[in-house]
Design goal:
The structure holds two protein chains of two kinds. By secondary structure, chain A is of the alpha/beta class. Chain A contains eight helices and 24 strands. Chain A is about 25% helix and about 25% strand. Chain A is globular, with a radius of gyration of 22 Å. The chains are: A alpha/beta, B mainly alpha. Chains A and B meet through loops of A and helix 3 and helix 4 of B.
Chain lengths: ~425, ~100
């Protein structure tokens, strides 16, 4: 054996392996950032995903209303991974933490020194009896958090004569908790523009006590529903859908009829997480909410929607979380303490229709407040208040997402929440 | 945060009346809290409340309705029968725990 070959074998043996499961928002940012931070002669980075289509999920909200086309929302996943990162397209069978390995459906086994689970959350209409009945599913009952659902809904809206539109949340937590509210606001504006708002009754059905979770924003958003003549039906925990009578039936036997149902099904983590014994009751991986380290294994992290942290399941959270995580990771692999503690920062635009939007900015302990959000060049943006500027912010974000965010480039928003500009009077 | 007297004991509560200190709870207090929301505690009620208390000790969070179903073995439908209209909120209230985080 030549010297070069034996050197190569030596390197292979001492090279450590970082394995990232999931190439969505969190996974893409992680491999981009860690590729720069980790020494390439010490660490190999591999990322696995079941398909090569990266979906811009915030765009799904707009598809049914014709403001985006489906092809604008999908790009090749591997085009966002840096050279030197190995991409494997495969379904995951099971993680075997005791063996530090991941088995793929093909039978192939991937070993790791450090594992990051970033496989997101998926809508599960199969969890609500009656919902996927062929009488109604994608005929009069739709989800909009999948490309198929959102496209089918766009088609249904084209020829819908009107009637009772029910917008429904099955169970929290869901991806982007404000999205169903935005959907309600956009539907109101959409049917008004089509001169048929008087033919459409809009009902907003939620398991929560009000329009949203936190008091200040819940009151403001509830007021906005009321203003648009959208009926709020709170505390509704669904038991089943009756596909024949087109009715939602709750656990306490309340019934809500629909002509067109737009539902947000139960969101769950991936089934392989349950098969691996790594998940909670919704297949999310229990982690420390400040460092994302598994509560059971010191070489497994979970980021993005796949973790159980009590923050919004949203791209902004994934982005801020990864910013903290990458610095921590470098400390962790050296056996040092992780010092960058995540505060649960979320920052979300809320479309309110008619070319306007709101912005909310909050964390684990501070609820969304009113005031101004300082941001270089384009800001400040008004918080929890409708403005055209926030709508443009939301539209501009798609470019930022594809070109900067998931490529791991720096964005001028702090990963930790700041109180600058926020009105603390609004809580009183 | 206010301090109020329940079942002859001084306890800390939040503005919605939920106990804020895990260790200030007792079965007597649970009975008094249940009475305030017109619930007579049967063995089935106690099974749910004790599950919530134990689960909180290990998890540090109040179990959601789904968790009470999948881990605690009490179906959501049964929870509605035992604690009408708002089971997760009512169970937490009686168990002296924070309202479960529905969402954030």
């Amino acid at each position: 054996m030549g010297a070069a070959a034996s050197k190569l074998i030596m390197e292979r043996e001492i090279m450590k392996k970082l394995l990232v499961l999931g190439g969505g928002t969190a996974g893409s940012i992680i491999v981009n950032k860690l590729h720069k931070k980790l020494r390439s002669d010490e660490w190999s980075i591999t990322i696995v995903d079941k398909n090569n289509s990266h979906l811009y999920q915030p765009g799904l909200l707009f598809l049914p209303f014709g403001s985006y086309k489906a092809e604008e929302l999908v790009k090749r996943r591997d085009s966002f991974f840096p050279k030197g990162v190995t991409y494997i397209e495969a379904e995951i069978d099971v993680v075997e933490p005791e063996k530090n390995s991941v088995k793929l459906m093909s039978g192939r086994v991937l070993e790791y020194d450090q594992l990051v689970i970033a496989t997101g959350a998926t809508p599960r209409p199969d969890q609500t009896p009656g919902l996927e009945d062929p009488e109604i599913w994608y005929k009069s009952a739709f989800d909009f958090f999948t490309l198929e659902g959102s496209k089918a809904l766009a088609k249904a809206f084209e020829s819908w004569p009107g009637g009772r539109l029910v917008i429904h949340i099955t169970e929290m937590p869901i991806k982007c908790p404000v999205a169903p509210l935005e959907f309600a606001f956009l539907a109101d504006a959409f049917f008004e523009k089509r001169n048929m708002r008087d033919k459409v009754e809009i009902v907003y059905v939620t398991p929560l006590e009000g329009a949203f979770t936190k008091p200040v924003s819940s009151e403001k958003l509830g007021y906005m529903l009321n203003n648009r003549k959208i009926t709020l039906e709170p505390d509704f925990i669904i038991e089943h859908v009756d596909p024949i009578t087109k009715t939602l039936v709750s656990m306490d036997e309340r019934e809500i009829h629909f002509d067109l149902l737009v539902t947000v099904p139960v969101n769950m983590g991936q089934d392989f997480i349950a098969r691996s014994g790594l998940g909670n009751e919704l297949n999310y991986v229990p982690v420390d909410k400040e460092t994302f380290l598994s509560k059971r294994y010191s070489n497994i992290f979970a980021l993005g929607d796949a973790s159980d942290i009590p923050a919004s399941k949203a791209g902004s959270v994934a982005h801020f979380a990864v910013d903290m995580f990458v610095d921590n990771f470098v400390e962790h692999i050296e056996g040092r303490k992780m010092n960058e503690l995540f505060d649960g920062h979320a920052n979300c635009f809320i479309e309110s229709g008619h070319g306007k939007g709101l912005l909310i900015d909050f964390n684990y302990t501070v609820e969304p407040l009113t005031g101004k959000f300082p941001i270089p060049v384009i800001g400040p943006l008004p918080l929890l208040k409708e403005s055209h500027l926030n709508h443009w912010g939301k539209l501009a974000f798609r470019w930022i997402y594809w070109n900067m965010l998931i490529r791991g480039r720096k964005i001028p928003i702090s990963s930790r929440m700041s109180m600058a500009g926020k009105s603390q009077d609004s809580t009183k | 945060m206010p301090i109020i007297e329940i079942a002859g004991r001084q306890v800390n509560v939040n503005e919605e009346g939920f106990l804020t200190e895990y260790d200030e709870w007792s079965e007597e207090i649970a009975k008094a809290l249940a009475a305030q929301i017109e619930i007579d505690l049967t063995d089935e009620h106690w099974k749910a409340i004790k599950f919530l208390r134990e689960d909180y000790k290990t998890e540090g969070e109040t179990a959601t309705s789904r968790r009470v179903q999948t881990v605690g073995g009490i179906s959501v439908k049964e929870q509605f029968a035992l604690f009408p209209k708002k089971p997760s909120k009512k169970m937490a209230y009686i168990a002296g725990l924070p309202k479960p985080k529905g969402c954030v």
